[in-house]
Amino acid sequence: MVRPRFSKLPPEQQQAIVRAAREEFAAHGFHDASLNRVIEAAGISKGSMYYYFDDKVDLFAHVVRIDLEQLFDRLGPFPVPDGGSADEFWSTLEGYYLRLMTALTATPDLATLIRGLLAASTTPVLAQAQADLTQALLPWLELAVIRGQRAGAIRTDLPSALLIAVVMGMGQAIDVWLMNQQPADADLAGSVGVLFEMIRGAVAPSKHAAVRKGGAPPPSE
Amino acid sequence: MVRPRFSKLPPEQQQAIVRAAREEFAAHGFHDASLNRVIEAAGISKGSMYYYFDDKVDLFAHVVRIDLEQLFDRLGPFPVPDGGSADEFWSTLEGYYLRLMTALTATPDLATLIRGLLAASTTPVLAQAQADLTQALLPWLELAVIRGQRAGAIRTDLPSALLIAVVMGMGQAIDVWLMNQQPADADLAGSVGVLFEMIRGAVAPSKHAAVRKGGAPPPSE
Amino acid sequence: MVRPRFSKLPPEQQQAIVRAAREEFAAHGFHDASLNRVIEAAGISKGSMYYYFDDKVDLFAHVVRIDLEQLFDRLGPFPVPDGGSADEFWSTLEGYYLRLMTALTATPDLATLIRGLLAASTTPVLAQAQADLTQALLPWLELAVIRGQRAGAIRTDLPSALLIAVVMGMGQAIDVWLMNQQPADADLAGSVGVLFEMIRGAVAPSKHAAVRKGGAPPPSE
Amino acid sequence: MVRPRFSKLPPEQQQAIVRAAREEFAAHGFHDASLNRVIEAAGISKGSMYYYFDDKVDLFAHVVRIDLEQLFDRLGPFPVPDGGSADEFWSTLEGYYLRLMTALTATPDLATLIRGLLAASTTPVLAQAQADLTQALLPWLELAVIRGQRAGAIRTDLPSALLIAVVMGMGQAIDVWLMNQQPADADLAGSVGVLFEMIRGAVAPSKHAAVRKGGAPPPSE
DNA sequence: AATGAATGAGAGTTCATTCAT
DNA sequence: GATGAATGAACTCTCATTCAT
Lengths: 221, 221, 221, 221
What we know:
Arc Repressor Mutant, subunit A; 2 domains; about 75% helix; DNA-binding
């Protein structure tokens, strides 16, 4: 955990440290990031680094947390549509996601960080940071699933955790695909539209599902 | 490239080395894997390691290649359904994928390796290994998309690269989810069924697409 | 570049490190010198070595630089005779060179270092160190040539670079010869006298040159 | 020493090995030359290498020896002018040296080898090879000095070893200077002329010497 | 509160040499 | 006679972390 000492620093110095760390982690990934380079860029001593943060992981986690906070502060609270039709549900979500992706595209270092974190499936040392990230998103996602189900927009025959995982996988794939395309913002809207279309196809109540599994009847809209 | 010297080793010693390396890479990822630990576990000298393999990357590539070969030897060739209905198309694919996942679930280290390789988006040193893996799969995947489109099973209004990326993202998510559940084989079939159902929903010709983009009219199912 | 950290060390420790490095480099040459042996002899850790110096080349360059500085501090500035006769020109130079050689003979390790550096024609990694050394000497040498020519002591029909190269070759040969003789200081003066005599014969305005090349008429002595 | 086994090889294989070694040594210097690369280029096994030669030094010495032999075979025996005037003495020598340098310029790898060997003042491991090279040349050089002295072309007041050392130093300097100029053959003759002129000035009987040292009276020209 | 000097463990890689076959 | 597999010692260099001041 970040030590309170760090929070007492003048904001501009906090920012200098976070910025230096963000750039280093984004540029080299967690493992290859060098604390020596971070403290040099931040203009602080090595002792101070360890005075503020427990260790490398702690610094990394703090950077991700801070950045995510700022990101979502800018975006405003997650809109979780309550009531309304399935179409309204998807449309609300898509609007929000588009703004999220627009923001992420504007902060590529953060995007790189998140991508790296999501992908670091084999680095146990980052498990905590991953868990943190997940914990920050999961409750909202689960709420969204529930409301989507109530709106008849999301199938009810699968665990929400699975639905969420698959949707995030699709989103990640689209993210990578988007970055490889380096689209203008105009394209971004179209791409997000396509993505949501596919997501909707994947998680919407499905006639195939009914046939295959004979699962629970879809809740009435 | 693996040197012929390695291939001349008695099979059990080749296996000992590959096994040691596989476990190390699976446990720590490519970067954090330690050659010292590998040679210790394999019971060979450091000089021998470099007598058999060019370098760390070469060893890694060899392990992945060997394991994939064995995997696909066990599975037989990719079936690419040609002709037939959309339902038949999906059913053929699902059967194969189920067998693939069954095999992967039985070799979790290999699964971890592949996952790590797919995710190593920022490690240029593995670019070759990634390219190898991709090149082995892409042609088949593209063929599958084309035949799926011909069968009316896959939408035609999006680039196949995007479709493939999204499907792989979904598959990866399911993989992770499956590994976290540590399901019995029985559950595996169900999960793969669900996955394909979602994939089908995502990439099947969509009425939404037609509405949104004014694209090509969906081929009749 | 040497890091300031090193300069802050207590002088005796700086000296211990420089001495250990000097002996190692002199004994084995740059390439065969082992940093492991240096840090062992200096009594510091491997980490400290790299805390003080960028790398092996940096250490080597520092040793040479320090030693040369001390050498020329002891000798005083290069005297560049201006005006006067050819005999006076040579006599001034000879006096300085004798003091230089006396100093070098007293510090054989430094002599070895310099010799090695001058001879390292094929080691691009030392190019910077060589360039440093050359740049420190060349301007003075060229000035000396010009003034010598003005005094009628040096021939004017050959490029100064060639003259300098040949003279340095002769000096180097004498150096080696001197070291093999391990002469008393008394002999040193005689040897330097002989060397200068030969140098004078080689680079003095020559009647042969006039005959052979039909070059500029030799300036009158 | 080269083992007789090597001499029994078919000449073309001997040549293949020597050629591979020569190129490797010339390209990387003795220390950085890799036996692995040599055997690969020569197309022999590592065991064979050590079956033919004691070790790396032995191989190096053999290459130098063979090449020098061939060089001097091509040049013919050293001409040691006996009788005649000082001018004739120098002229004979210069003619030979010009042919030597022409030959060396045509075989740059050998030239590099020799230069490296002459310069390797700090590599005790090559002491034997250096001594070999010197021993091959010294007797002739000393004979040349004696005859030169008899012809009144060379001063008699200095040990011949010193004269030889200085002359070789001058020659080496010119060699380097020549290589940096990359002259056409035409320039070579001129350069050698200049070199000999300077050599003559350096080692010819000198009035300065008589004045300075009160040494033996100079032999009459 | 803050520093920065010091370190040790470890990294990947190279290579001349040996020796059983 | 010839091979090439096997090795271990050595190499330079990196880095997160500690701790006395």
